[in-house]
Design a protein that fits this description.
By secondary structure, the chain is an alpha/beta fold. It is 42% helix and 12% strand. It has a 7-stranded parallel sheet, with helices on both faces.
């Protein structure tokens, strides 16, 4: 059976693990051909030194019903990104969805550390990975995406525009990175909207990525065992939840109504009616404001 994205071509930049992998798999489940990029391959790992690879992601895309194509790419290298886009143009002659999900900063930021105490090299590296990579990728990929009307660009970040406007996020470097990506989507909307395409910023909620599960010493099948230590983790979601958000946007013929907006996985679940893998609809950002940040006991009633 063909899916709603049959015949569509997507590029998920930064698809080795986490949100990028979840997005790539759900685009594949909807029938898309998905190019997945990253720096961790079966031949060598990035400085993350983790087992996930882009080849594994591509296999998961294909198993889900799409066609996964892994292309090792450092998105700080403009020549490599240009070669990636040239390959997509040569092989597909189109690009319908661009997801800028490159991040790579988990090992670089220091929690609640002021800028004058934070390691400067790590902070600047974080900004390059989180912001410069997105700009490089958009620069090279957008001419191909704009060849046909209806293209979609998704800038992945952490936090909605409203939440990040009012909330200090970790430290100056992290705060600046995540806010910058929100603004990138806003600016891209002004540049590509009149040319027939749509740009949005999208955030998952508290995501049960491979790194997060490892940090709490649990697996996806027993993640609730961490709730005794981290009660608010009860609002968490799988990476596939935000993947379903992107797939829903990509399949929506009226997606232009979201141009320039800051969106969340939980908010789009209400809009489109999709659920997480367990059938729930976690609304993490509303929960964070109304329960966690308000100092209330963990209780997801009415939030998932």
């Amino acid at each position: 059976m063909s899916g709603p994205l049959e015949g569509k071509v997507a590029l998920v930049a930064g698809a080795t693990r986490g949100a990028g992998r979840g997005i790539a798999v759900e685009l594949g489940a909807a029938g898309a051909t998905v190019y997945v990029t990253g720096r961790s391959t079966r031949e060598g790992r990035s400085e993350y030194d983790r087992p996930e690879t882009i080849e594994d992601t591509a296999d998961l895309v294909t198993e889900a019903g799409g066609r996964g194509i892994a292309v090792p790419t450092d998105h700080l290298d403009p020549a490599r990104v240009r070669a990636l886009v040239d390959r997509i143009a040569r092989e597909q002659d189109r690009l319908d969805v661009l997801v800028n999900d490159v991040w790579g900063g988990e090992k670089l930021f220091e929690w609640d550390t002021p800028v004058w105490e934070h390691d400067l090299d790590n902070g600047l590296r974080l900004l390059r990975l989180a912001v410069e990579t997105h700009a490089v990728t958009s620069h090279h990929a957008l001419p191909l995406l704009l060849r046909r009307p209806g293209g979609l660009v998704v800038e992945m970040t952490d936090g909605t525009a409203e939440y990040n406007r009012d909330t200090y996020r970790v430290n100056l470097f992290y705060d600046l990175a995540k806010t910058s990506v929100l603004r990138m989507a806003f600016a891209l909307a002004h540049e590509i909207g009149p040319r027939g395409a749509t740009a949005v910023a999208l955030t998952p909620g508290w995501m049960r990525s491979e790194l997060m599960l490892d940090q709490f010493g649990v697996r996806e099948d027993n993640w609730r065992d961490a709730l005794d230590r981290v009660p608010h983790f009860a609002i968490s979601e799988t990476p596939r939840f935000v993947g379903r958000a992107v797939a829903a946007l990509a399949a929506d013929p009226g997606v232009a109504r979201f141009n320039g907006q800051s969106l969340s996985s939980g908010g789009l679940a209400r809009e489109f009616g999709f659920t997480d893998l367990d059938g729930s609809r976690p609304d993490a950002w509303r929960y964070l404001v109304e329960v966690q940040d308000a100092g209330k006991p963990a209780d997801t009633t009415g939030y998932r």
